[in-house]
Amino acid sequence: MSFFEDLKAQLNSIDKEAIRLKFAEATDGLDPESIKLKLEQSGLKSKVESWVDNSKESIPATVEEIKTALGPELAKLAAKTGETAEALAAKIAETMPKVVEKLSSMGKGEK
Known about the structure:
- By secondary structure, the chain is mostly helical.
- It has a single domain (about 5-105), classed as Orthogonal Bundle (Arc Repressor Mutant, subunit A).
- Helix content is about 70%, strand content about 0%.
- It has six helices and no strands.
């Protein structure tokens, strides 16, 4: 089972620290909050807000948006994890909304 598959399984947990640690393990030490901040700063604030706002439908980030937001850091991370930048961006795009949702004290995961 890959780190990201294990992370997706962990997202069913209510243990926020376990989710944070699993994400860091899957991304070679990146904190979900730092990625969230990078996404917000790169113009994706409305998408990020949709992941935690119960009154909004979650709007996913695209692979291209993840690649743009993380820039050169994505290539470095991909090299460390053995993934291609494209594959890693796809995995982050898939899991990041769920991670942010679960880690947010007001997120949809806290219903």
